[in-house]
Amino acid sequence: MKILIADDDQQILRALRILLTARGYQVTVASTGAEALSRAVEVHPDLVMLDLGMPELNGIEVIEGLRGWSAVPILVVSGRIDSSDKVDALDAGADDYVTKPFAADELLARIRALTRRQPATADEPVVTFGNISVDLAAHQVTRKVPNGTEPVRLTPTEWAILEVLVRNPRKLVTRQALLTHVWGPQYTSDTGYLRLYLAQLRKKLEPEPSSPRYLLTEPGMGYRFSPDDPAADATAAAVEG
User: Alpha-carbon distance 51 to 99, whole Å?
Assistant: First the structure.
């Protein structure tokens, strides 16, 4: 099971990595809010643990960014004890809240409780929309033609954007999350990149690129993949992470 830990305190990161690795968890760490969003998109953790007071993006902003595209359980581990901080975190989309300092046994119990709620994930599926098939395991895209199928050539950047979208059907994926995943946290304001690459993806994948059916823009917020049938929706949802 994969756990992402986000905290700007290096001693906390080291202690939690040792504790959780010893219990068999695969641990990824981040020391800033922007790095946390980037790592979440990269590794698709089964649980996110984060502090509220981080640089670049605070914990509430990270929760909001994650909830734009993922239902991953979020456990806040923070030194803030004020009830308003707890309410803000839970309202933003956190699933549980532990106050520092914490007992290791309690923390592990909270982790077990949260991860028990998650359904088992399936093998990487093939996501289909319109005449397009996206093989997430093989990193291949094909199009139906009268005589069978033909490959659709995507650049690595186009693939990276498409993969995030199809893994999160019907969910808003914020511009910030996409920019952080593809280009890094230093490019979170460069929205022109996304407009360019989404236009290229639509030319290759949409039946009418000027009136997109599947790769939708949410003005001022981000983008959304809209599958055209319940089967495609359910198949893509199996790889949420």
Answer: 10
Among candidate residues 119, 115, 114, the one with its CA nearest the CA of residue 97? 114
pLDDT tens figures, 24-58: 999 999 999 989 988 888 888 999 999 999 988 89
pLDDT tens, residue by residue, 50-102: 999 998 889 999 998 888 777 789 999 988 877 788 888 888 888 889 888 88
HEC string for 122-147: CCCCEEEECCEEEECCCCEEEEEECC
Q: How many residues does the chain have?
A: 241
Domain spanning 2-116: which superfamily?
Response regulator (3.40.50.2300)
The gap between the terminal CA atoms of the chain, to the nearest Å, is 11
- 62 phi/psi in degrees, rounded to 5: -65, -45
Q: How far apart are CA 132 and CA 222, in angstroms?
A: 22
Q: Is 235's pLDDT higher than 90?
A: no
CB 20 within 8 A of CB 9: no
Q: Which fold has domain 126-237?
A: Arc Repressor Mutant, subunit A (1.10.10)
